[in-house]
Amino acid sequence: MEAVRVACAKTPSCLRPRSRFALLLSTMAIPSITRENVLAFRQRATYLHTRLPRGRLVEAAFAGLQDSAPRSAVLALHARVKDVSPSAWKDPRFAQVWGPRGAVYVVPSHDVALFTLGRSPRNPVLRSAVRAAAEKAKRAFRARQAPRARVLSDRAAGVNFRELRIASMTGAVRIEWDGARTSWRLVEPPTEAPESARLELARRFLRSVGPSTPKEFAWWTGGWAGSFGSATKGELSDAEQTFRSLEKELTEVELGGLKRRVLRSDISRLERAAPVETVRLLPPGDPYLASADRALIVPQPRLRSELWPKSVWPGALMVNGEILGTWRRQVGRVTLRAWRPLEPEVKEAVEEEVSRMPIESARKEVRWSTGDVPL
How many CB atoms lie under 10 A from the CB of residue 175? Predict the structure, then answer.
């Protein structure tokens, strides 16, 4: 009987049904998720479903906060934490770094390594270029007898802006930007291993805008040497290597017929994520908006181009989990453009959000745009 089984196992006609069965099992093993699952998961993961108690700023900034528009980081904190002050970005628990996609980021001080070393290239040639840029910056600072804590502009330091951006990936050259002036200073570099920083940065990415792909991770971390329009081949190669290194921690899901990866520890939360019921004014570059799959967030191409124009981006009006409009601020006046008629209670909630904005303005007012022209 054993001989029959062995002989049958070597027969193509016996193999085919097993192959089809194995293929069926592998297909069944990949759960299919919906757009609603993904958006609700991301909103909850980034604390847009309910505000954290006062003071829990670092928790809200686990994936970094883009701060390219003056004080976007503060407004992103306001969307997630109660009673945020206008000076929250100066909290000693935070640090500013030159971060993903060619933008200034506010990150937890103890996570500086993730957003510097974690973005450094594995390629030996590029890695040498990063070290060389850092050494050049150090020599320039020393030549001007600048103490380690002293801040210098790129012009005063005698190093061009591009080289300083590259050098910042060592974590030893730190940017400071107050909305009007950009300066740099030397600090002690992080002691963490670059590889562990890369892996943890990928985990933060997947927790905030997952499920995703290596290509989208390359875009999210991109901006090497200031080229932030699209990921370079080196960035994509690094992203693919990072996902391979995390293989045991990841699992596949299917969204819209395409396979994506999510942390195994997050799969149940993803599948059970319920829609949020909140009104939020998200600033340009908000962590929730910082994903390459923009069509998932705003399916209509015309509206998507309003939220992410080629010029300066507006903020986003989020109502119960959907982006329903845009907004811009000029001092204390906030102008909003809704993409559909809003219920009175929603408008009231928006005005309440504006009244609580942590901005240094004695007067705050709301203006609703009624025209068809994007803000």
Answer: 21
pTM of the model: 0.89
- Residues 6 or more apart whose CB falls under 8 angstroms from that of 334 comprise 281, 327, 328, 354, 357, 364, 365, 366, 367
Cα 201–241–164 angle (5° rounding)? 55
Within-domain flag for 73 = no
The total number of structural domains that make up the chain: 2
Position 181 scores a pLDDT of 84
Tokens standing for residue 9: 């196992």
Measured CA to CA in angstroms, residue 85 lies from 52, 329, 358, 360 at distances of 14, 17, 5, 9
Q: How far apart are CA 322 and CA 319, in angstroms?
A: 5
- Per-run averaged pLDDT (10 residues), the chain, 375 residues: 42 50 55 96 98 97 90 96 96 94 94 96 92 91 71 73 91 88 90 97 98 96 62 86 98 95 97 96 96 96 96 96 96 95 97 93 90 87
* Structural domain span for residue 7: 1-29
**pLDDT value at position 5?**
42
- The span from the CA of 221 to the CA of 67, in Å, is 15
Cis preceding-peptide flag for 211 (omega within 30 of 0): yes
360 in any annotated domain: yes
Domain assignment present for 274: no
Considering only CA atoms, which of 177, 198, 48, 214 is closest in space to residue 102? Answer: 177
Residue 241, token pair as written in the block: 């290597």
